[in-house]
Amino acid sequence: MSRKRKYSDLEKALGHRFKDQDLVTRALTHSSTRGNGSRDDNERLEFLGDRVLGLAIAAALIEAFPESAEGDLARRFNQLVKRETCAAMGRSIELGRNLILSDSEASSGGRDKDTIIADGVEALLGAAFIDAGFDKARGIVLKLWQTHLAGKGNAVADPKSALQEWAQGRGLPLPRYVEISRSGPDHAPRFISEVRIAGCKPAQGTGSSKRAAEQAAASAMLAREGVMSETVHAN
C-alpha cells in the first residue's frame, strides 16, 4: 500500500496533485519561521500567485460579463481578489491547519489571521503555476471562486463589513467591538467579543482569534436583525 501523501486532503480540495511536494511545503511556510532553520518561506510564491490570481479572475470576469464597462469589471475584480475574499477561500479548504508557523505566531492565532491565510492561498497558486503551468493554476482559481463568480462577481460576505454598511444605511453609529474574555492556552486561545451599536441590543461571538470572534459577533447581530443568515468565523 502506498504511503499517504502529507497534503493529500489539501490537494484534493485544490483539485491538483503536485508533482513537487516541496513546493507545497514552501507555499505553506510563513516567514515567521525564519531563524528556525533553513526552510524557505512562501513570500516569493505569494508574489507570483498574486499575479496568477489577478490574471485568472480578470479573464473570468471578461468572459462572464461581456457587456460590462471597465469600471464595473474593476469593482467586481477588487471584491474578488481582496484579502478578505482570499482568506475566505483559504478557510473553505481548511488551509489554516496546514500552515507552517513559528510557535509564537501559532500561539497568537496566526492560523486564523486573514493576511496569513490569504498569502498562503496566493502562494499555493504560485506553486501550482510552477508545478503545472497557468492553466492548472487558473483551474484552481475557478474551482475555489466558482460560486462567487457565478454570483455576479460578489465577494464572500464579510460580516463586519456587512454590519457596518447596514448600520450606515440606517443612520446608526458605527459598530464598536469589545473583547469580553480570552481563555485557553496560548497555543489554542478562545476569544469572546461583543459588538455594540447604539440603539441595538449587543451580540456576542466566539473565535480562535480576536478577529474571528468579532466576525462571529457581527454575524450573530446580522442574523438576529434578519439581514443575513449567520456565518460563524470561528475556526
Quick take:
Helices cover 54% and strands 9% of the residues.
Proportion of residues in β-strands: 5-15%
- Report the principal-axis shape: flat
How would a crystallographer describe the biggest sheet? 3 strands, antiparallel
Strand order of the largest sheet: 1-2-3
Mean pLDDT: 86
SSE order, one letter for each helix or strand? HHHHHHHHHEEEH
CATH architecture term of the largest domain: Orthogonal Bundle
**Total of DSSP H or I helical runs spanning 4+ residues:** 10
Distance between the termini: 33 Å
Rounded to an integer in angstroms, the radius of gyration calculated over CA atoms is 19 Å
Could you state the CATH homologous superfamily of the largest domain? Ribonuclease III domain
List the helices and strands and how they pair.
Layout: H1 8-14, H2 21-28, H3 43-64, H4 70-81, H5 83-92, H6 103-107, H7 114-132, H8 134-150, H9 159-169, E1 176-183, E2 190-196, E3 203-207, H10 210-224
3D architecture notes:
With 235 residues, this protein is mainly alpha-helical. It has 2 domains: 8-150, Ribonuclease III domain (Ribonuclease iii, N-terminal Endonuclease Domain, Chain A), CATH 1.10.1520.10; 159-224, Double Stranded RNA Binding Domain (2-Layer Sandwich), CATH 3.30.160.20. The chain has 10 helices and 3 strands; from the N terminus they run H-H-H-H-H-H-H-H-H-E-E-E-H. The chain has helices at residues 8-14, 21-28, 43-64, 70-81, 83-92, 103-107, 114-132, 134-150, 159-169, 210-224; strands spanning 176-183, 190-196, 203-207. Strands 1-2-3 form a 3-stranded antiparallel β-sheet. Helix 5 (83-92) packs across helix 7. The longest helix has 22 residues, at 43-64. The radius of gyration is 19 Å and the shape is flat.
